[in-house]
Amino acid sequence: MRYLRAAGLVLAGTALLAGGLTAGNRWLAERDATSEVNGRTDAVPREEVARSLSDHLSLPVMLRGPRSVDCAQDLRAVRGAWIRCTAHYLRGTDRGMTVRVVRVRGDEITYVHDAPHR
Q1: CA angle at residue 35 from 40 to 82, to 5 degrees?
Q2: Residue ranges of the chain with pLDDT lower than 70?
């Protein structure tokens, strides 16, 4: 009877771990965000893009997300427009990312980023 209970706990733990990894993988695979365009500049402010990236890289899978994210410029509301951003991590490592506009609809744009790299 003990062996059945132990086997059940192992199977439940394995299923929980596999589900968590699948959810985490899906979270990381979905690298898109939508923001409102500033009407004066026809762009999303760099601070808004940086905040969005920082939020995405921090939770729920990466408990040690970046301490800050900086973007070189505002993101223009033109399909295909791109900017470079840098994620700054605690150990002094910096990881670059490219953020690209994939859709423009009215006063909203959808943009994606690649995985942080050196």
Answers
A1: 80
A2: 1-30, 59-63, 118
